[in-house]
Write a structure and sequence with these properties.
The protein has 197 residues and is of the alpha/beta class. The chain contains six helices and eight strands. A six-stranded mixed β-sheet has the order 3-4-5-6-7-8, sandwiched between helices. Strands 1-2 form a two-stranded antiparallel ribbon.
């Protein structure tokens, strides 16, 4: 696969945040320290949106929480720009940003179970409930594909013509940090390489 990562810099006044994860050996618990990042001005986030509109990319990955000062419909705006250019948005976020982007519609959304439950306002504990909610998102045109990550239980992938459960590999867990990002990266790489969902 010939990967061409389009890199552009949008300068902002504030400093990039520095997050940390603390692993407590005695309890094997992880504690994540994620301070707020800089607050972006309207001109800064609009400059980023304008830059996205100029990218020549098949896939645009929108991931993470939005910086302070950025409107909650920012990922929805990115999705609208992507549609105009026939680019596919892969979305991995939560809360209001997730809700608003799905109202615009995206190619693929990757929630975890907690994010999915928060989105629809009900539990998705059983495999049947998970499948029904994911199928509803696809049927309503909010996403063409739902890739629900379930930690040790693997993942559920739902699209118009199919449902697939993927087992989680049997590995010694050292940390959960970056697990969702790794899933999105691998999935996007496979799709960009021409593999079927």
């Amino acid at each position: 696969l010939d990967i061409n990562l389009n890199r552009r810099v949008v300068k902002v006044q504030g400093h990039t945040r520095l997050a940390a994860t603390i692993f407590e050996r005695s309890s094997t618990q992880e504690f994540r320290v994620t301070p707020p990042g800089p607050e972006l001005s309207e001109s800064e986030w609009r400059a980023f949106l304008e830059m996205v509109a100029k990218l020549d990319s098949e896939y645009i990955v929108c991931t993470g929480s939005l910086p302070r000062g950025v409107p909650t419909d920012f990922y929805a705006r990115v999705a609208a720009v992507a549609k105009e250019r026939d680019a596919k948005v892969i979305l991995d976020t939560s809360g209001r940003a997730l809700f608003e982007a799905l109202n615009e519609g995206v190619y693929l959304v990757k929630p975890n179970q907690r994010e999915l439950e928060h989105l629809v306002g009900r539990k998705a504990s059983s495999p049947k409930e998970q499948e029904e909610i994911a199928q509803q998102i696809v049927a309503e045109g909010k996403a063409e594909i739902v890739a629900l990550t379930l930690g040790a239980e693997g993942a559920l992938v739902v699209w118009k013509d199919g449902v697939k459960r993927l087992p989680s590999p049997d590995v010694e867990v050292k940390s959960a940090v970056g697990a969702g990002d790794s899933f999105v990266g691998g999935l996007t790489y496979g799709l960009a390489d021409g593999r079927s969902i």
